[in-house]
């Protein structure tokens, strides 16, 4: 008897991954200290305001505290002072400008458009400048859209006071944990290296190497940023920097160990990662004294490289007082403040990207303000606020942020609606604010949509204390958010040709060209005599590749064709990182006894990479290439040649 035909169920309609990527929460731990700090910083000013009979004043202080909570993203205490205090000054300037043009019609439109241009342009300077530009524009929009208490200086003073509250709460742990963030970061880098050695020869090696790069970047940023604010060489920081520099030989030995483990199908002995974890514990606890290492006898060049690097790191980690004049800043010492200001100003004023971002933001803010000037929209400042958050040019994909903003706002309104409807304005607002504020740091690390959902009810509650609209705020805020998202999508995304393209090919071309230069440098006659030069070149390459990876993450959330093109180029980005690893592994093998390659072999590899870089610059699509790359199959460059062939093959259709 014939079996009945199997009925295939219809395919379910599922949204594309580039659209839903931001709706998946990131697996991050809850920052309990930040949760407690946010709950106190936003609820305490309300309590004081109610006690003093001035709830509007308390709401303004809480608004300033909200800005401080959002901007408190650093780890080191000195950096947190900078990250909180500087944006607060820009926020105070913004609300002052907004207050001065409140109710001035087209003058307010012109003023906010100019502020938006400046905000967008300074966002390219760095993380602190980006947050400062954001608060400058946000507070200007709020000042121009909400009635502020007289005289004009009172609102900026109250908002700044809120930032001071957050700053004071943040610095309470400084006397007890002054150097703990930097020490924890350096120890975390050692633990990441231990996981890298465990992954030698395995498929997870690339993922672990990326984690090490991110950890090393963070550690250098923390330690060197603190050094930049301390003239002279503090012993604690000198020791941390020397311990961090000792990671570099370990990282250079890791690619050689990985290639050897894959070639001989034998992972590193477990004593190696265990010893690195022991060094991490010594860094974390500040242990000194003679190091105790129980390592197996090395046999191959890669094993000798790991052994030498590990013994050197153990000596440095356990040394109580390293020589302060023998500590190399791998990334270079910061220039004088006036020099940095001059360089930054020149870069902002003469940068095409800076002007382009500023003009996009100014156009959208100008349209928002013009719209609410022509059409009576109640509490219209919310439209411009939405545009500001969505179109912040350095925060990622405009398209995905607009979608996530709309969804996050809708979720936040579902939370705010029962609060505004059922909770009477008064002292009950204090415990409600304490609960809602605690959700902000807990949700912010999960993703943009989750952060928006957490911030929306807080802003609505504070706004209601200023304009007393209650539940009537809910639906207008949803409409305003949708209008703001539409303006950002049309005027800030669809009308700009660059939105439909991605710069990943150009960024990859630069990385490939830099890799070619690194190959030439690694095997130049002076490479063995000046390792720090090689170290800095390698660190710069990995930092650049981290930036390329971030660009890819942004591009992958764009709709087609930009997202599809980024997905097509993605394997080549991974191949470039492997090229750097293979080059480092070959150099380490030479340093530990393997025969050096012939100059002609090095030149051939370099030439292939430069040809690949030029091909990437000249085409927006994958093109066919020919590879004629031969050499000694038993030589140190053979793994590198294999990676070059693989990269060239990826660049073929």
UniProtKB/TrEMBL annotation:
**Location(s), subcellular:** Cell membrane
According to the entry, every stretch annotated as the Integral membrane bound transporter domain falls at: 370-490
Keywords (alphabetical) are: Cell membrane, Membrane, Transmembrane, Transmembrane helix
Where primarily located? membrane
Q: Which InterPro entries match?
A: Memb_transporter_dom, YccS_N
Membrane-crossing residue ranges in chain numbering:
89-118, 125-146, 152-174, 357-375, 406-428, 478-496
**UniProt GO cellular component terms:** plasma membrane
The record places domain Integral membrane protein YccS N-terminal at: 99-259
Topology relative to the lipid bilayer, per the entry, is:
Multi-pass membrane protein
What PANTHER family does this protein's entry cite? MULTIDRUG RESISTANCE PROTEIN MDTO, P-HYDROXYBENZOIC ACID EFFLUX PUMP SUBUNIT-RELATED
What name does this protein carry?
Answer: Membrane protein
Q: Which organism is it from?
A: Streptomyces showdoensis
Taxonomic lineage from the root = Bacteria, Bacillati, Actinomycetota, Actinomycetes, Kitasatosporales
